[in-house]
Write a sequence for this structure.
């Protein structure tokens, strides 16, 4: 089987980490919807 180089492994780990972080943020924001923003007059 073909093995990945150290640089390819690093890139793969970074991409997977960012993907997992994005999914975690998505699920957190879905579970905890933002409250209405307080509007201030300038």
């Amino acid at each position: 089987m073909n093995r990945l180089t150290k640089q390819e492994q690093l890139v793969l780990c970074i991409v997977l980490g960012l993907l997992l972080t994005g999914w975690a943020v998505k699920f957190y924001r879905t579970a905890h919807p933002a409250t209405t923003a307080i509007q201030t007059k300038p």
About this structure: The chain is about 60% helix and 0% strand.
